[in-house]
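As a warm-up, study this chain.
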Amino acid sequence: MASEKTVDAYIDGIGDDRGAIVAALRHIIRTAAPGARETIKWAQPVYESGGPFAYIKAFGKSVNLGFWRGSEIRDPSGLLTGDGDRMRHVTLVSLDEVRPDLFADWVRQAVALNAAKGDPTKGR
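Now compare it with the structure written out below.
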């Protein structure tokens, strides 16, 4: 998967249920942030608007949806995890765990944070 150049190829290269999870997350992000740029960076789908705001990463038995400014995202569900000073993610092992409305809200918050604060890879 690491050498793939498109998100379609990334999804096709997974070859199991994780591909359906990635496809569902991709749809949520593209719907909630239609102006965002979608690329493969760091061997994973990355979404950018004023800098990177979200990524999707397939692992051996799970998929992470992560956010560069995740520690600043309102998450009353408590699903976002991580112990760094900024990034947070949710780990999914089945398609049933995808929560379109909640995840779309996170995406919109992440885009708004980048709009307000700038590219998270260039400082705070």
